[in-house]
Amino acid sequence: MNIRFQFMKYRKIAGIASIILFSISVFSLSFRGLSLGLDFSGGTLVEVTYETPVELESIRKTLTDNGFEDSQVVNFGTNLDVLIKVADQNGNSSIGEAVYNLLNEKGYKGELKRVEFVGPQVGSELRDQGGLGMLVALFMILMYVAFRFQYKFALGAVTALGHDVVIILGLFSIFAWDFDLTVLAALLAVIGYSLNDTIVVSDRIRENFRIQRDMEPMQMIDLSLNQTLGRTIVTSLTTLLVLFALFIFGGEMIKGFSLALILGVMVGTYSSIYVVANMLMSLTLIQEDLAIPEPEGAEFDELP
Amino acid sequence: MVLGFTYALPNLYPTQPSIQVAYTDSGKSADQILLNELEEILDNDSISYQEIFLRENKIVIKFNSLDDQLDSKTILQNKLLDKVIIALNLEPSTPDWLKDIGGQPVKLGLDLSGGVHFLLEVDIDTAQQGRLELLLDTYRKTFKEERIEFINSSIDDLKLFFEFKSKDSYNKALAKYRTDSPGISGLQYIITERPSANILLLEYSDIALREIRDYAVGQNLMTLRNRVNELGVSEPIVQRQGANRIVVQLPGVQDPTAAKKIIGKTANLEFRLEANSRTSPLRKETFSFKEDEFMTASLEKAVVVSGDRVTNASTGFDESGFAQVNITLDMQGGRAMQKATSGNIGRKLAVLFVEQKSKSELVTNEQGESIIEQTTYIEKNIISLATIQAVLGTSFRITGVGSPQEASELALLLRAGALAAPMKFVEERTVGPSLGKENIELGMKSIMMGLALVIIFMTVYYRVFGLAANISLLINLVLITGIMSLLGATLTLPGIAGIVLTVGMAVDANVLIFARIREELKEKDPQTAIRDGFSRAFITIFDANVTTLIAALILYVIGTGPVKGFAITLSIGIVTSMFTAIMCTRAMVNIVYGNKNIKVLKI
To answer: CATH code at A200?
Structure first.
């Protein structure tokens, strides 16, 4: 068997890089926090589109002069689209209309594209639900992988997932990108995707451990990684291709979503190579761990 | 697969402009008589329509052009006035044979079709307070009748408070509470005893609270449905969500303010007699008029009939051509009205409008910061004060209600009925029609671009096998559409993103298989390599997909609206992509290479 690329030679460097990235993310998350989108923070958002570009500064002034002190005014996509975010005012649900009417009265006549209002209670509920969902997802996946493979693989897989999620969250925190429900959805999809990768690699390691009985674990993992490398690259590439298409053509509303996925696919591909293998190495995976052959029923129960 | 294709078909047919006509009175279903009437009007004005038919309780008319649709709406509305509600709609032109087997195009979410989404929360505490007030009255009466003497009685912090004169009364009351408490579903009361002070506290048990909540939410749901019907929206959704919330979705509605005004009217009505010289000062209250707050009138405290007894209300004109409102009450309301008016002809009857309002105030909190605090309060205004001219029964009319516009607004409020408990908006999302269209275009563009890139890549990298994978990918897209149609699932913008993602990830299974075949080729002949490649890769594909499915299912459970749409397309995509990658590609590879003696396999 040919080992073209000795991944495990760089495992210490990769490990250190992961730990540094992870620490920076945790640091930023705990001190800067996430810039929560409307879904989680609660408040009101108004998007208005104009025929000619308008001065954001004068809109800001108009709003401040009329009692909406705590508002953000930014362009959205093009300089014809204006996005106004007003912080929650004790669950008052008619701020959106009030802002739009005010702007129309003051001469900023534009077309109302959307108004979103999320009450403070709904916001905090979505926050709790999102966090809980993420934990449940990680736990169920841990159980499934432990059941199908072995607990060392499960630990490796979940560490890889935790690593991916924290680093993406960290990037969103560092660059202060809006974290809303769609980004959370993307994050869960990343969990699914990264796992996909991890399982393919783990599957091969398991298989090789059973056939090649006279190899060192480190060589074995290197061999497995090499065997799956082609597939890993092709799949990541096709997924990235469509995600870039989504990022470029999909419009402003799913920019955050596609960005989170693009980062997720990249980090996920890396972590399925290094994080999982590193974990397996440090947990000293040995032959006996996989001694009992599992029944490999090829049931086609997923047919529609 | 044939099934998938068949159910994907309805999405190819274009939509057609149409209108839906229903009676304003939601208790009345559209019938052949209305259909004939509509037909006659349209024929007289020589407006061409394609089809007119009865569906459920509405009449649907299809047109060939948008102009005809708008013209006919104006003409029909002018002829029939507020007898009917007319909603503009786009009817799918699905052929009959497809409709018969349940075929329908994929439903679009609000972020694609444009429209309004509201989430309302029912205020259960107020409903409970109302119940407790009733209970307090009942027990005061019962205790008086049974000579159980009490010194104090009140409602405190959602608890009924009674302080008794003697131990004897205390014990009797306690016994009374205990016999009353068991309900059909369990104990209704939680009783706190303070024998030393002769005090009894009573609050509702969780079971009773659940019943109160379910009743209040159910009642409000019905009222909201009626109000939404008044808006004339073609496919509205009014649903309970969770314990005490209600979702209202109005696709195609372009003016959220108007919709909110009707839906959000947390209004109730009370009919009360005007106080006269014999009314004791303790039993009267003074209210101002809605039109003019400086004008006031004193009314009796007793409510004759409240708004939930109103079964119908409509506008009309009196003999001298002024607008009037005709009101119909239910039996119980009619009897109460008869009793109250029989001795009081010549006195005045007021309609009180009860509204929940909120006001914002600048207050200083504990940290010394100024914050805006919002408080809700109940405002009652007189909307009509009219002289009783005869003994009133179940149906009567109110004259002198102002302009026809004001009359119809009053009628609408009366008709829409009362809410069992006030509600407030906790979430609102409005998507303008232009943004919806834009989202569809951008979404389709992303799918096309993503698909094109993947197809080119696969063909270049895997040649013949790549072509097979590409065909599988296309079949996969059709299957996703078909299954979404079959399940009646809703497509949203993140849902489209889910499809795009599926396109990228679906080839993974094929890539795994091909990589496996390549490896097997080193040791085996091509036919065996193909066979083993497929079967060996299967386990990996299965494991990898199950975990993604777990993530997608969790997303479905926790997600709301658009995000749910993403979870749906992702889940369906995972299942169909496994099917197409394994079965379809296999079939195609077999057609090309099956039963042939191949020397060299290019992969």
So the answer is: 1.20.1640.10
The CA distances from residue A194 to A164, B115, B337, B516, in Å, are: 8, 36, 70, 20
- Domain annotation covers residue A301: no
Using an 8 Å CB-CB cutoff, list chain B residues near A248: 449
Q: Collect all residues of chain B within an 8 Å Cβ-Cβ radius of residue A304.
A: 3-4, 479, 483, 575-576, 579
Q: Inter-chain contact B554–A133, Cβ cutoff 8 Å? A: yes
Structural domain boundaries enclosing A154: 7-36+122-290
| pLDDT tens sequence across A126-138 | 888 888 888 888 8
Residue A43: Cβ-neighbour burial (10 angstroms; 0-12, 13-18, 19+): buried
Contact between B427 and A122 using a beta-carbon 8 Å cutoff? yes
Residue of chain A with shortest Cα separation from B504: A239
> What pLDDT, on the 0 to 100 scale, is given for residue B456?
92
Q: In the prediction, which pLDDT does A227 show?
A: 84
CB A253 to CB B512 under 8 A?
no
Residues (pLDDT < 70) of chain B are 24-28, 81-83, 130, 134, 230-232, 254-258, 261-262, 264-267, 311, 355-377, 405, 409, 412-420, 561, 595-603
- Check if the interface score ipTM surpasses 0.85: no
Q: Based on the domain organization, do A229 and A185 belong to the same domain?
A: yes
Residue B391 contacts residue B352 (beta carbons within 8 Å): no
In a domain, A302, yes or no: no
- In the numeric block, which tokens belong to residue B274? 């005007």
Top residue of B120, B365, B563, B569 to mutate, by most chain A CBs within 10 Å, is: B563
Q: How many CB atoms lie within 10 A of CB B261?
A: 11
> Measured between CB atoms, which of A90, A242, A303 is closest to B372?
A90
**Which regions of A204-272 does DSSP assign to beta strands (E)?**
none
Cβ <8 Å between A298 and B497: no
Rg, Å, chain A Cα set = 24
> What are the φ/ψ torsions at residue B516 (nearest 5 degrees)?
-65, -45
Identify the CA nearest to A189 among candidates B338, B187, B554.
B554
Are A243 and A157 within one domain?
yes
pLDDT digits (tens, 9 = 90+) for B552-572: 888 888 777 678 888 899 999
Helical ranges in B252-388 per DSSP H: 256-263, 331-342
Q: Which residue has the tokens 């003696």?
A: B597
pLDDT of residue B113: 82
Considering the domain architecture, whether residues A56 and A12 belong to the same structural domain is answered as no
> Structural domain tally of chain A?
2
Closest CA to A196 of B96, B485, B509, B62: B509
C-alpha radius of gyration, chain B, whole number: 33
A135 and A182 both lie in a single domain: yes
Q: Kindly state whether residues A23 and A80 are assigned to the same domain.
A: no
Beta partners for residue B85, in sequence order: B22
Distance, in Å, from the CA atom of B549 to the CA atom of B555, rounded to the nearest integer, reads 10
Domain match, A12 and A93 both = no
User: A72, A98, A118 — which closes off a domain?
Assistant: A118
Q: What's A64's domain CATH number?
A: 3.30.70.3400
Q: Which of A97, A118, A139 is the last residue of a domain?
A: A118
What's residue A243's pLDDT? Answer: 93
H helical segments located in B402-432: 404-416
Chain-chain contact of B454 with A241 (C-beta, under 8 angstroms): yes
A285/A231: higher pLDDT: A231
The answer on A176 and A88 residing in a single domain is no
Q: Which residues of A touch B479 (CB under 8 A)?
A: 304
Q: Based on the domain organization, do A99 and A127 belong to the same domain?
A: no
Residue A258 maps to a domain: yes
* Substitution target from A246, A258, A259, A265 for chain B, most B beta carbons within 10 A: A246
Question: A49 contacts in B (CB within 8 Å)?
Answer: 434
Closest in B360, B554, B575 to A136, CB measured: B554
Tell me which residue in B453, B493, B554 faces A188 most closely, judged by beta carbons: B554
